[in-house]
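With this grant's support, we have paired protein sequences with backbone structure tokens. One protein thus recorded is set out beneath this paragraph:

_____
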Amino acid sequence: MFKNNNLKSISIFLLLIISLLIFADNQLERELESGKAIVLIINAVVKKDSEQYADWSHYLNQFSSDVGKNYVFHKLSTDKLNKTVLNADKFNNNYSMIFMKKGKPSYFYKGPIVEPQVYKFVQLMYSGKLIKPKYLKQFSPKEVNIELKQTKPDTHFKKPNIIN
């Protein structure tokens, strides 16, 4: 009787661990499929005595507050980025950000964002609204192709043809 209960407990534990691993691998895909915009924050190390960090953190927190539950934010280390995104080495800069949304362009911003207009541009693009005022276009992050590792073959985020 005791052996059967232990075996049953171990089986349930292993099943739970396997389920969690599957969930982790597919979490970004599920968020994208649900219509959420995703923000990947790369190598963000807290530097409380840095003015640049304070500005970056303030604008990021304001953006997060403005967009609410329509966006999901993930802080990634270099290691996690390499496990998540194909060709991740070209995105591996401290405080850099990748923005993704299904059916919309993906963007990469190298280094800390200290101009709130960058966030405003992304917010307007992902909401489908016109970019107004027009000067916000100059704050567009770089459009990039992002392909997640271990995805279905048709799940990548490619640069669309944009007519200006």
